[in-house]
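Bumping my old thread because nobody answered last time. Still need a sequence for this structure:
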């Protein structure tokens, strides 16, 4: 949307199809006048003569005077509305036919159909909210858990903006001290702040920005799901495991090797945490070009994941481990690794995964038959497991049967433990937006240059330039420096129609 189009009066259906009630929002300078042309109150004055924040019962009429629907009309006057403009909300019956008829009447009488996010974009342009609050509206609508709801509510209510405002005040104070020194640099006897005070202020600013940057890993995991890569050889049971975790037939399961050739992703909420499971192509040596592309994507997803489920066929566990250890283990450094010994139902009764000397680490497979999955926690990178040497830290071994859905609940519990995401309140400021993260990262680089400049006693004009860059990057988040139509359009195009 071009900013010049904000003078238009817009309309859109603001509710999902299928409900008993459907709402149409109208906003703009002519919102009330246009609605008056198609709406007849059951009694009393037209909308233009009514007070704001009132509900009026009446009828929507066609040009021929036919009643299309009985409706309630809510009235809001500028600047006290969501968009900051005159606004009307028409509550109709939820029939798609009725809603389309009302929309057509509004457009014929001077409205324009709103684009995605155009109402919230107008709220931003009219100063009803800053850009970070506007983006939180979309996050609130898309929230799927208590944690994502709390993050979005805090941001929409201005928690993140207040944090940035405090930072901006400190930066402005530091900038003013630096520029005062520049203005009176020819008066050596005047000193507005010694370098130690400037360094302390810069340190405080750096700590806050650094903390906000660090929260992104948690915020991104809460918003988009903790990425869990399911890897292993072909026919080890990766797709069966994905289906068992999701409790639905999400991936094709076949005895034919190499069935999964591309990445399959789906999400699930476990213990209040959203996980994004990524089923990857089986890793093996092959001359098939398409399958090799899928295997390369498998390694890419493995490196992007926080948690790795390495699925191994329990009937040939040592062999599969040796074949892929050099390819998988180096990519698991710094990640949580779960070795999933699948197909345990195919093992002979009484068979064990470890020598008798390691009974304290591994239970006999008979424990599975008793209903207790085999789980082994490993706390060092030494050869702590006789079958699986050189495992990294944060590794556990779980024996299960994905086909029989035995041991799945234990695996799910382990995933929640590995996720270890904090409980958030609506007062916690957590960064979950990639645009905010990038702007904060650039601001952090700027304040680091300020600290270096102060430590090396660089001239004030050079340090001030880095301070101004830091201020600019923080302003990008709330929209203080944004005037580019393309940038705004890119932010709001992902919103739903009607918001």
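Sorry it took so long. Here it is:
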């Amino acid at each position: 949307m071009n900013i010049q189009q904000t003078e238009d009066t817009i309309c859109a259906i603001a509710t999902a199809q299928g409900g008993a009630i459907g709402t149409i929002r109208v906003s703009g300078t002519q919102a009330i006048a246009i609605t008056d042309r198609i709406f007849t109150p059951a009694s009393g004055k037209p909308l233009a003569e009514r007070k704001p924040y009132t509900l009026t019962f009446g009828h929507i009429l066609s040009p021929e005077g036919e009643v299309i629907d009985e409706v309630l009309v809510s009235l809001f006057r500028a600047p006290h509305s969501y968009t900051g403009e005159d606004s009307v909300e028409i509550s109709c019956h939820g029939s798609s036919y009725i809603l389309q008829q009302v929309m057509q009447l509004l457009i014929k009488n001077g409205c324009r159909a709103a684009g995605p996010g155009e109402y919230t974009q107008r709220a931003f342009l009219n100063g009803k909210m800053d850009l970070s609050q506007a983006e939180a509206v979309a996050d609130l609508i898309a929230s799927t858990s208590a944690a994502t709801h709390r993050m979005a509510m805090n941001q929409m209510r201005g928690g993140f903006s207040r944090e940035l405002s405090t930072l901006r005040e400190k930066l402005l104070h530091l900038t003013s001290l630096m520029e005062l020194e520049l203005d009176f640099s020819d008066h050596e006897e005047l000193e507005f702040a010694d370098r130690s005070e400037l360094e302390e202020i810069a340190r405080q600013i750096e700590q806050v920005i650094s903390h906000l940057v660090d929260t992104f890993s948690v915020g991104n995991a809460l918003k988009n799901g903790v990425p869990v890569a399911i890897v292993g050889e072909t026919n080890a049971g990766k797709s069966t495991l994905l289906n068992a975790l999701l409790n639905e037939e999400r991936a094709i399961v076949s005895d034919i090797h190499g069935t999964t050739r591309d990445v399959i992703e789906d999400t699930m909420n476990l213990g209040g945490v959203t996980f994004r499971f990524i089923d990857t192509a089986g890793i093996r040596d092959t001359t098939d070009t398409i399958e090799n592309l899928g295997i390369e994507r498998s390694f890419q997803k493995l490196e992007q994941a926080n948690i790795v489920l390495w699925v191994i066929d329990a009937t040939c566990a040592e062999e599969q481990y040796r074949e892929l250890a050099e390819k998988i283990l180096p990519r698991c450094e710094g990640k949580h690794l779960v070795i999933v010994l699948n197909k345990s139902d195919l093992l002979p009764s009484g068979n064990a995964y470890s020598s008798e000397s390691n009974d304290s680490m591994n239970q006999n497979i008979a424990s599975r038959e008793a209903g207790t999955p085999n789980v082994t926690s490993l706390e060092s990178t030494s050869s702590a497991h006789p079958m699986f040497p050189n495992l990294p830290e944060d590794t556990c071994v779980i024996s299960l049967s994905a086909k029989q859905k035995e041991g799945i609940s234990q695996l799910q519990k382990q995933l929640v433990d590995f996720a270890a995401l904090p409980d958030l309140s609506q007062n916690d400021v957590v960064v979950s937006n990639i645009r905010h993260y990038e702007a904060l990262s650039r601001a952090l680089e700027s304040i680091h240059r300020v600290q270096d400049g102060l430590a090396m006693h660089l001239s004030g004009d050079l340090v001030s330039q880095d301070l101004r860059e830091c201020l600019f990057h923080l302003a990008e988040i709330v929209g203080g420096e944004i005037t580019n139509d393309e940038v705004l359009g890119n932010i709001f195009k992902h919103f739903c129609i009607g918001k």
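The longest helix spans residues 159-183. Let me know if any region looks off to you.
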